[in-house]
Design goal:
The complex is a heterodimer of chains A (about 70) and B (about 160). With about 70 residues, chain A is mainly alpha-helical. Chain A has five helices and two strands, in the order βαααααβ. The longest helix of chain A has 10 residues. The longest helix of chain B has 28 residues. Classes of the chains: A mainly alpha (about 70), B mainly alpha (about 160).
Amino acid sequence: MTNKIRIERAIMNITQAQLADLVKVSRQTINAMESNKYVPSAVLAMKIAKVFEKSVEEVFALSEDDF
Amino acid sequence: MKARFLFPHNLKRIGILIAIPSAFLGFLCLYKDFSLQFLTFRKPLFFSLGGDDNFLGDFDLTNEFAIIGTIFGLILISFSKEQYEDEYVSTLRLESLQWSMYVNFGLLTLFTLLIYGSGYYTVMIYNMFTPLIIFILRFNYLLYIKPKFTQEKYD
């Protein structure tokens, strides 16, 4: 799964720590998702999309190796 | 997300305060035959009635105290919640636990082949604690040290 968290974060101009606070997870979790080391749960993906005021599909997308 | 079967976060520090002195006491017991006077009791009479001379003498509870303290402390360090106990931390926790089992029993297999006699007894003593110690090292490395290499560039 790929995501645009880093891009969306740059657009909103917030740090990993600020995003982590907004969705109530650790900063390590945001970092792991941005470096594609962790695929978030559906709940967390929806919370992140909500912070960016986008739909989940605009932030997260399936990649080749998901199949 | 609800984290289950974990202790409150602040018990982690208490775990460190219990585990380190207990482990130190354990080393003293193991290598210096150290014993604490107030933990040494006269054996109650009924233990001596069997007629086995080896069972006469005092109870020295120092090593029991050290072992239980170390186990209790390591359990608190291992299974206290992190400040943010979220889904990623839970995943890391489980993966580190699995990793530590592989490493621990891999090492045990190696030492079983390499060490014989009374040395193996020492291996078994250490092996009571190594699963938790390896877990703590792996989990904290993945959570706090490894991200430092990638984080600063983008934050």
